[in-house]
Structures are given as C-alpha cells and as structure tokens.
Backbone:
C-alpha cells in the first residue's frame, strides 16, 4: 500500500541554522500539507499546497518558512533560521482529492538546541 | 475561527466496557467532522467521517449540530483500541483543525 514517507525521522540542529524536511507524497496525490505538533500540544496546520502553489497557510507559517515541490515527487519544508520554539514533530500529508481524508507520514522530529 | 475541543486527555476503560470520546466544535458554518487515530508507533490515519455515517472497527460518531458535538462511541472496547484519538474539523478551504487528542487505554 503506498505511503507518505518523510526524512529525516529526527534532526537536531542549532538555533539559527536552516533545516529542510523532506516528504514524498503518495504518487497520484495532488494536495499536500505540512502540520506540526509541539510536544504535549495540538496538531497544528501550517500550510497546504496545490498546483505548485500555496493554497492556504496559517499564522505560524511566517517568512522563515517556505515550501517547495522541486521535482514532481518531493515536497519540502524549509525553516530558514530555526528558533527554540520550532522544536516539534512535523507531519507531511497528502490527498488525491480535496476531502478531509489526509494520508500522513510518520513525522520528522526537529529538536532545536 | 474554528475550534475543536476534546475535554478528556485520557480515558481508561476495561475490555468489553463501552467507551465514549467527547468532541465539541465551534464553527459558524457547516463543518465536516472527522476522527483520526494514531496507534502506537503508527502514523495518524483516518478512522471515520461524519458524512459517511458508517461504523469502522465498531466505532460510530454522530454529528449533533444543536450541541455542536461529534462524540465517538464503541459499545465494547477491545485492547487493540488503545490509541490516541483526534477529532478534526474541516471548514471552508482544505485544512483540518484538530482537537488536543484523547488517549484511550483499554485494560484487560
């Protein structure tokens, strides 16, 4: 069964460093998402992406965040200059149609020191 | 703005007992509601949605617009139901707003 895959599973970085989290959505899916979950808190929406552009973003998704689909298979989240409060589990998700059934990856745990 | 509240962080029940996970939402329009589940060491996955009105793994959930609730129920809990459960709302647009989650522990 096809799955969303995410790399790395865990990344430790120093504050101020750039981080790229990678996702490979399910191949025939058209809608892509990033969510994050700070330890002990809710799963929060960051951004949605469709037809090679951002379709919606949350207040969390400020100028230090960016997303890209560079090659038709990968979907990346870049954090330009990480802060301590960016430490969280980041989930990528995809779906074939514009419904609420999202297919999630296993997550990338980011630790900012 | 939409909001989803799951008042119980932890529900502990014995095998064979009924279990009900509460979910309340606030949204001014007509929402779509979902329950997602995350089993130990597995990814978050859809359990059921209110539109389909079906029972999945013995779970059902009814959307009550008057009470703005979408509680998840199962009459006889099984040990394999132990997991983290998230209620989610889809408003206009395509993002999901999640509740804080309820951890269910089914004891033998």
Residues:
């Amino acid at each position: 069964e096809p799955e969303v895959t995410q790399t790395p599973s865990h990344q430790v970085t120093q504050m101020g460093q750039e981080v790229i989290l990678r996702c490979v959505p399910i191949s025939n899916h058209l809608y892509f998402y990033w969510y994050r979950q700070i330890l002990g808190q809710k799963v929060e929406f960051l951004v949605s992406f469709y037809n090679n552009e951002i379709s919606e973003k949350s207040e969390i998704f400020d100028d230090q965040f960016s997303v890209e689909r560079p090659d038709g298979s990968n979907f990346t989240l870049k954090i330009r200059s990480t802060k301590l409060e960016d430490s969280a589990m980041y989930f990528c998700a995809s779906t074939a149609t514009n419904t609420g059934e999202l297919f999630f990856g296993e997550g990338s745990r980011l630790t900012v020191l | 703005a939409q909001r989803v509240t799951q008042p119980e962080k932890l529900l502990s029940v014995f095998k064979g007992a009924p279990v009900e996970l509460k979910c309340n939402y606030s949204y001014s329009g007509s929402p779509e509601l979902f329950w997602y589940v995350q089993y130990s060491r597995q990814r978050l996955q859809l359990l059921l949605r209110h539109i389909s009105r079906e029972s999945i793994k013995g779970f059902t959930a009814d959307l009550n617009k008057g009470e703005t609730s979408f509680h998840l129920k199962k009459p006889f809990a099984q040990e394999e139901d132990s997991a983290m459960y998230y209620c989610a709302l889809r408003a206009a647009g395509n993002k999901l707003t999640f509740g804080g989650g309820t951890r269910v522990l089914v004891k033998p």
